[in-house]
């Protein structure tokens, strides 16, 4: 997996990395158990402060996307959710509300939004979770 950052982006570099890792996992480009580059290795490759990489990894670990094995490195975590189904649905509704608000603001119709969501959903890896 190749990571890229843009210093001209309004989004912080650690957030860019978090987004790329989350999306790679969601699209199946990174699999559970797969090892990520070390903080030093990635900071050298991207010419970014190691603390920036460490922050991205730490926050992703806190979210359960990654996990660290002492002396072995950082790996993609097995998917799990500590949240109840009700809490997950609530978070999903909030995300959908923001998406729909933006779509309306941008002038899209309901059908255009539904078609776009369906089209994009085909590009992600879906699996049944309890």
Keywords:
mainly alpha, Arc Repressor Mutant, subunit A, 52% helix, globular, 2 domains, single chain
Description:
By secondary structure, the protein is mainly alpha-helical. It has two domains: 13-76, Winged helix-like DNA-binding domain superfamily/Winged helix DNA-binding domain (Arc Repressor Mutant, subunit A, Orthogonal Bundle), CATH 1.10.10.10; 85-121. It has five helices and two strands; from the N terminus they run αααββαα. A two-stranded antiparallel sheet has the order 1-2. The chain is globular and about 50 Å long. The model has no long low-confidence stretch (mean pLDDT 90).
Task: Using the CA coordinates, give the radius of gyration.
Answer: 17 Å
Task: Report the total helices.
Answer: 5
Order of helices and strands: HHHEEHH
If strands are numbered along the chain, what order do they take across the biggest sheet?
Answer: 1-2
Helix content: 40-55%
Short description:
By secondary structure, the chain is mostly helical.
List the helices and strands and how they pair.
Layout: H1 13-26, H2 39-46, H3 50-62, E1 66-69, E2 73-76, H4 85-105, H5 110-121
Antiparallel strand pairs: 1-2
Helix pairs in contact: 1-3, 2-3
């Amino acid at each position: 997996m190749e990571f890229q950052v843009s210093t001209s982006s309004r989004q912080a570099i650690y957030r860019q990395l978090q987004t790329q890792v989350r999306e790679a996992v969601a699209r199946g480009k990174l699999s559970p158990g797969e090892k990520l580059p070390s903080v030093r290795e990635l900071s050298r490759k991207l010419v970014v402060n190691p603390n920036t990489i460490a922050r991205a990894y730490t926050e992703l670990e806190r979210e359960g996307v990654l996990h660290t094995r002492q002396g072995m490195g950082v790996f993609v975590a097995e998917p799990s959710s500590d949240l109840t189904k009700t809490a997950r649905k609530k978070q999903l509704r909030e995300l959908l509300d923001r998406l729909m608000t933006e779509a309306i603001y941008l002038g899209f119709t309901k059908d255009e939004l539904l078609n776009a969501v369906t089209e994009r959903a085909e590009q992600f890896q879906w699996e049944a979770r309890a």
